[in-house]
Amino acid sequence: MTAQTTEPVTAPSPRLRSSWRRWAAWVALVLGCLLLLIANVAVFARTFVFDTDTFADALAPEQPDEDVIAGVADTLSDKIVTATAVQDRIQELTPRDNALVAATVTDAAENIIDDTVRTVLESDAFRTVWREVVERAHDRFVALVEGDDREPVSLDLRQAVERVDQSLEDRGIDLIDDDTVDEVSEVVALRRSQIDEVRETVDLVRRLVIALPIVAIALVAAAVALAPDRRRMLARAGVGIVVAMVVTAVALRIARGAITDRVEIDERRQAVESLWGRLFETLFQQTAALLALGLVIALGAWLAGPSRLANGLRTRVRSLAAGGTTTQEATQPSGIARLLGAHRTGVRLGILAVAAAVLILLPGLSALAIIVVALLALAAIVGAEILAASPQAPAA
Fold first, then answer.
1. Is the pLDDT of residue 388 over 60?
2. Which helix (H) or strand (E) holds 89?
3. Burial category of 240 from C-beta neighbours within 10 Å (exposed 0-12, middle 13-18, buried 19 and up)
4. Mean pLDDT comparison of 105-109, 204-208, 294-298, highest-scoring range
5. Distances (CA, A) of 124 to 61, 75, 127, 128
6. Residue 99 and residue 91: Cα distance in Å, rounded?
């Protein structure tokens, strides 16, 4: 007879389980940082698109932007010159054999129109009109993306053109008629062909703006929880957040360069660059604040680590806190110190969870609020690590 042997079913080895947890943690971390990048842009877009005051403050600030005014004035004066056919009119009134006189008079007329437009746009009266124009256009845009209307969104500069017309007439120049006012005063910002695409984009942003930050934070937390070395993964999470925000900043810089390079006229290019900075100022602040948060997380995790420098810093601070004493009584850990030392990872995660909850529950999230909460979280992590006692070695 032959004895039958059955091989026992073996459980996965600890090394295999650790490998799967490590890979799962890395996947969760990469996805979390990527979603945080997208969430950062989505939160900005949601606030900027639907907040009239934020939109108006960017395009029509209380302190006028000279570069933007110069760009708008150059565009508007060019439209007036084209619509009124100044050059053709002067050529008709000038003898054909004297082209130099026609060119000189044309340049002088265009300069007068340009100076008049700039004077009107730089006036205090136009500043109020311009903000009203921007607010009406924004309200029109919000109504369009939330409804079924397909009328284009435009900036109505009729009052400015009428003021230019009146100023020119006061100087004895009658160029602008009612048809020219209608042709020049409307600046289309969103055309019918773009409406459907904009609606789909805005609708997607509105659906994701709440879910994305929560999912991103959950994935980063899951990465830390799954990692075999949670402190090290927490440091990597901080570095990942920093990398995501750096990518955002670089992408914005590349996009700005691609857009401004298409503008050939210097004054208009400067206006676009200045306007770009105003439009995306809030996104720049959010990105900088999240970058600071990532640095705080990475630094806090490093300070809690076993490196010689971090260990020396903690020892030095403990010594200072104890008044420089090194006696057995001064260095004997308290009950709180032993508790913190036994639950280091849980304490760190708890502090970060509280910080995230505070940021989510704040009624008005700002870059300053994120930086303050991040610094407080770092101080709490460092303080807990300093107070924590090292695990006691078993007696021989």
1. yes
2. helix 86-93
3. buried
4. 294-298
5. 12, 20, 5, 7
6. 8
Instruction: State the maximum Cα–Cα separation within the chain, in Å, rounded to a whole number.
Output: 127
Number of Cα atoms under 13 Å in the Cβ half of residue 76: 32
3-state secondary structure of 180: helix
What residue spans of 227-362 are helical by DSSP H? 230-260, 266-279, 281-303, 308-321, 328-331, 335-342, 344-361
Single-letter amino acid code for the residue at 124: D
The sign of the torsion formed by the CA atoms of 47, 53, 56, 61 equals negative
Least Cα distance to 122 among 80, 86, 164, 156 occurs for: 164
**Span 77-101, pLDDT tens digits:** 888 877 777 767 666 666 665 666 6
Q: Across residues 156-173, what is the average pLDDT?
A: 81
Q: Model-level pTM greater than 0.90?
A: no
CA 392, CA 394: separation in Å to the nearest integer?
6
